[in-house]
User: Fold this.
Amino acid sequence: MANALVIVESPAKARTIKRFLGQGYRVEASVGHVRDLPRNASEVPPSKRGQPWARLGVDVEHGFKPLYVIPAEKRKQVKLLREALKNADELYLATDEDREGESISWHLVEVLKPKVPVRRLVFHEITPEAIRGALESPRGIDEQLVRAQETRRVLDRLFGYEVSPLLWRKVRPQLSAGRVQSVAVRLVVERERERMAFRSAEWWDVLARYAARGGQIEAELAEWQGRPVARGRDFDKRGKLKRSRAEAVVLDRQAAGAVVAALREAAAVVEKVEDKPFRDRPRPPFTTSTLQQEANRKLRWSARQTMQVAQHLYENGWITYMRTDSVALSDQAIAAARGLIREQYGADFLPSRPRTYKNKSKNAQEAHEAIRPAGSRFRTLDEARRELNAEGWRLYELIWKRTVASQMTDALGKTMEVRVRAGDAGLVARGRTITFPGYRRAYVEGAEAAAGGTDGLVRLLGVLRLVLVGARAAG
Assistant:
């Protein structure tokens, strides 16, 4: 019987894959990279220590050739993998299908120097079907991905070694910088200079709450004595009105108080009610960045926390690979989502055709599909609640709902604007009503989660009675 060694990155991923493979397969983890650039002078080989570029670990004099070493903490794991390889007839490298994963596989070959056939396994989700499919169609190591990761790593080192000491002095010790962090530091500096040059401005606005037989509305002062009322967007960074808004009136505390007094005495009448139908389409499934943004809005998580939880879900077979900039779904995922919608929400919420999404960015790599529940059948939220910890359940719920909603019908409704005239003042109340929830039955994006109905606006036609009016500082 053949005896194959399968190497993945993490022990958690190894345990999951081991459940899907039968006898004849041994699954071990590399625990991340097994080689890297030297982190300090002590890791530089003695033969290279005299070179002027040695502290960088990159030979800048000969084509930026990187100097790779095995970190001390990885030597034990490398020894384990070498021992395991001695008893293997073939080697499967099942690291992630991205630049880092490809690079780990390449480094494993360079370090282990296998004398048996080497095959690269790639899959976007850790499910029995995906693993079987990968075993049936292995490939070789993609040298272009390896070189891409190597280039990024070299840039990290060349830029980061110069910026990191600055961070230690100015921010706090032990911080590291690279190609991304270096740019981020510059953005922070530029933003701080803008902040230092900024001049604050104070303005006041007025809110009035009116009641009629149909209910209540809250209207904001938009016009006073024929002139528009200034708001925050009308000021520049010097705290002055923009030229395009020079005619706007800026209310200070005294002026706002005078408006309030005038509104208390004036009869208010609805001048105009406008309502327009709208169609709200569902958002695409999650990419890495949109998942991080939404988890921050809805769960108040940092990007690091989100990716740690997503990594756990991926390695345990709950979601597809979590590092992607693609918004596309596979045919398998679309079929699973549409079947679920038909069964759980009904035919009214299922479009006649599957929805497809494409990236707007020309730089999107789209090596993977969007982040979604794994498998040809999405495990239910009840299953997730029973089997996952609290963090895993909350993130899986977010991904599940966003994926399902992306294949549902549009939400329908109407936007409304009520214009109120009260003496010299013009006030505006805005809102919208959802007439058919569509995809919102499953998922509402974080920024819109508080949106509710405003049917009362359309019935407030005629004379209004003032309930409350007040001014507030807005600067």
Observations:
- Confidence is low (pLDDT under 50) at residues 450-463.
- The radius of gyration is 30 Å.
- The chain has twelve helices and 13 strands.
- The longest helix spans residues 143-170.
